[in-house]
Specification:
The protein has 198 residues and is α+β, with helices and mostly antiparallel strands. The chain has two domains: 1-86; 93-181, Threonyl-tRNA Synthetase, Chain A, domain 2 (2-Layer Sandwich), CATH 3.30.980. Helix content is 52%, strand content 26%. The protein contains three helices and four strands. A four-stranded antiparallel beta sheet has the order 1-2-4-3, covered by helices on one side. The longest helix has 81 residues, at 6-86. The radius of gyration is 48 Å and the shape is rod-shaped. The model is unreliable at 191-198 (pLDDT under 50).
Length: 198
């Protein structure tokens, strides 16, 4: 038999009910906190995986760009090798330069030599130009005559001759041009000149 007044019984029931509600709320909050923590950890992990994936993608892209660049360099190198092998330059440039310098009369000095491979009507050729100064026009004419009579020089011409003062002495500056036909067979000999004669 319950001898407590009715109001005490009701108060006890309300208190018990409140405790149950409080426990339920606390449990719910714990669950929500656990879910939120798990979600945050999952999001952090996803972000980390995304960063790693982006880094790998960037590395793969860089490798692809490097591979493409290497392929282009390889293609250019192969094209150069093909062009080099197709060139039919039948002599060493050094032999031509040596022949020209050895043909110079003693009173002549070279300042410039230019040899350029060109396409002519008959095929490949070399346009050559030599420039310098000499003691007189006669000395320049001697060099032109020597070139005209020596293979492989052809179409020899004196482009200009004009006065020039060299170390206080009057001289003649000049430029001589010539053509070498690369389609003909010939040999270069290193001619040594002395005083303008062989």
């Amino acid at each position: 038999m319950n001898l407590l007044p009715e109001q005490y019984v009701e108060r006890s029931k309300n208190k018990a009910r409140s405790n149950r509600v409080a426990v339920a709320i606390i449990a719910t909050l714990c669950v929500v906190a656990a879910v939120a923590t798990h979600s945050r950890l999952s999001m952090n992990s996803a972000v980390e995986h995304l960063v790693v994936a982006q880094s790998r993608a960037n590395s793969a892209l860089e490798l692809e760009i490097d591979a493409t660049s290497l392929e282009l360099s390889k293609a250019r190198l192969e094209a150069f090798i093909v062009r080099y092998n197709d060139e039919k330059v039948v002599f060493a440039m050094g032999d031509i330069v040596a022949t020209l310098t050895n043909m110079l009369p003693p009173s002549m000095t070279l300042e410039d030599i230019a040899l350029d491979i060109v396409e002519t009507e008959d095929g490949k050729g070399i346009i050559g130009r030599i420039a310098g100064f000499a003691s007189s026009d006669e000395t320049i004419a001697t060099l032109v005559s020597l070139l005209q009579n020596q293979e492989p020089f052809g179409s020899v011409s004196m482009d200009f001759s004009k006065s020039k003062i060299v170390r206080g002495i009057r001289a003649r500056s000049f430029r001589v041009s010539f053509l070498i036909d690369l389609e003909n067979d010939w040999e270069v000999s290193r001619i040594a000149m002395a005083g303008g004669a062989e």
